[in-house]
Amino acid sequence: MKILVIQQKMIGDVLTSSILFEALRKEFPEAELHYLIYPHTIPVVENNPHIDRIIPFDTTRSFYSYIREVKNSKYHAVIDVYAIPITALITGLSGAKFRISYEKWYTRPFCTHLFSQNIEAQTPAGASIEKRLRLLSPLSSNFPAEIKPKIYLDKEELTQAEQLLKTAEISSEKPLYMISVLGSSQNKTYPPKYLAELLDCIVEQREAELLFNYIPSQKEDAERLFQLCNPFTKKSIHLQIFGKSLREFISLTSQCDALIGNEGGAVNIAKALNIPTFAIFSPQIPKENWNSYEDGINHTSVHLKDFYPDAFDGYTDEDVAKKASQFYELLKPKLIFANLKNFTEKHP
């Protein structure tokens, strides 16, 4: 039996949907399990023992070639987690007995089973995980309600990360925090001037060492944040130590005491590594969709609506997204200080 899972685009989505493979492997040990994802997201599922084959979705390749490949593979089930028109078409033309996705007007003609994405979480895993696992229910009634995403690092990767920190002479006597300095886009990024104030607070209270999560093309943004910090904080920021690849970032994060900053793929990665997280949600992202495993101790987050429940009254979701920068201005650092202090005190 062969099963294909389709999940494209964002790193956090691909990591979260990887739980389906652990569930499928336990229920169907002999099944052949394939994952169709974008190439840049492969590092978060590298070495995953439950995935037999990763199919990179190459945008330079003919879309119809994917339809042919999927159809010729004779899958027993295709699970379209991404649920956009293109993936719905691939699913619909696959010939699979089970064609499963989310309920949308364009998925109806192509799928045998459809599920609503609007659910209320019943477990600490949260809606993002629970709604994915529900997609497996047509195949069996034995799947769990929750599974935590996992990332698999090898010994060499861990050793290299440890050595990198030793070479940089980063003190093991002080807390080491990875800072998620950027969101997945500009309108999902907490204002740098505000984040700098939070970093000043962290270093003043905890005398922590800080690493920045950025890639070479984002160096200018990272340096801008660095310059906004006070001189004392700058001495604790190791700007030259960063993950030059996604896999290297994952390895470095595994060595940290916590990850703090913009909600997104980095937060999901830290959770999968069992690293505590403090996430700042962008105004347009419903916190309840992605605050998985939050317990107020190991994982916590803040959102504008935590402080101003009526902030979006009279606005559509589109309005909030378009005015994200204006809403972010309301989420001033002084609102977050107490929550952040409480978190860092638990993760010294």
From TrEMBL:
Keywords noted in UniProt: Glycosyltransferase, Transferase
TM annotation in the entry: none
A matching Pfam family: Glyco_transf_9
Origin superkingdom: Bacteria
EC number per UniProt: 2.4.-.-
UniProt xrefs under Gene3D superfamilies: Glycogen Phosphorylase B
Molecular function via GO: glycosyltransferase activity
Enzyme category, top tier: transferase
PANTHER family for the chain: ADP-HEPTOSE--LPS HEPTOSYLTRANSFERASE 2, TETRAACYLDISACCHARIDE 4'-KINASE-RELATED
Protein name (Swiss-Prot/TrEMBL): Glycosyltransferase family 9 protein
